[in-house]
Amino acid sequence: MTTSNHSQFNKYYKAHCKHLKLKGLQPKTIDAYSRAIRRIGDYFDHKIDALTHDELLDYFHELLERLSWSAVKLDLYGLKFFYIHVLKKSLDSIPVIKAPKVTRIPDILTVDEAQRLFMTTRKLSYRVFYFTLYSMGLRLGEGIRLRVSDIDAKRQRVHIRNAKGNRDRLVPLPAMTLHILREFWQLHRHPSFIFPNRHRGLENAHLATSPMNREGVQSTISKVTREMGLKKKLLAILYATAMPRIYLKPGLICLSFKNT
Question: How far apart are CA 189 and CA 96, in angstroms?
Fold first, then answer.
């Protein structure tokens, strides 16, 4: 690797990150497209402004040998963004990558499995969080970003902001979920967040300056999965299983608000 290559790559990379933020993309997309350029830069000794068609074909072919189609597509989309907004070049030199079309039936979390999940999750914050995702069909980030002002108890709906594609949507709010969220909020009384971070403990969560930590949510669900002996990807299933129109029957979940 030459010093000039590395220096020029750093300039390109900084410009790439600035464009990603200015386009208002979701944090996960920004992270994926940034990671794509770093990976491509490492592969080509940081000289990425004059890649040939054959070089890119070799790169994506080798990438597919190690990673999934979804990773390949993310690198392709990240590179296209880089070409258009940083290099100001056309896409003619980028090979077309077409992932095979596969229709999969998602795993379904049964009622018994759902109840086991909620009760196996020992920390109340996470237990209420997983139940909220399940009962309203929310994605992980949508649940984390929930605010008190998003809850419309009168109309029994929740305003989901900045959802996939930077679009807002309204989701029906089951009566049971509203009741549980009210009881949970009474414990922390944060003025903004439904799920404030746990850094200060639940008793001081009203002082939190940020919502619940994504890594903590994912780590906990992994531990619960192992303890339950399930091989299903629970975070994805919580969203896929429960469409927002489902109103859960009483008795599906018993939340002890003494255990925080």
Answer: 52
Q: Is residue 257 part of a domain?
A: no
If DSSP codes are grouped into helix, strand and coil, which group holds residue 137? coil
Q: Enter the tokens of residue 94.
A: 């980028």
Amino acid at 248: L
Is 0.90 topped by the overall pTM?
Answer: no
Tell me the C-alpha to C-alpha distance, in Å, between residue 193 and each of 18, 146, 240: 29, 6, 24
- Residue 52's domain comprises 3-87
How far are the Cα atoms of 66, 112, 114, 115, 176 from residue 251, in angstroms, in the given order?
45, 11, 12, 9, 10
Are 124 and 227 in a shared domain?
A: yes
Query: Which residue in the block uniquely carries the two structure tokens 């992932």?
Result: 99
Instruction: Note the helical H segments in the chain.
Output: 3-22, 27-43, 53-66, 69-82, 111-120, 124-136, 140-144, 175-188, 214-228, 234-241
Q: How far apart are CA 97 and CA 1, in angstroms?
A: 28
Residues 118-159 pLDDT 10s = 888 888 899 999 889 888 888 888 999 999 999 999 999 999
| pLDDT tens-digit readout, 32-66 | 999 999 999 999 999 988 888 888 888 988 988 88
Task: Decide if 96 contacts 80 (C-beta within 8 A).
Answer: no
3-state secondary structure of 149: helix
Same domain, yes or no: 119 and 167: yes
For 225, the 3-state DSSP assignment is: helix
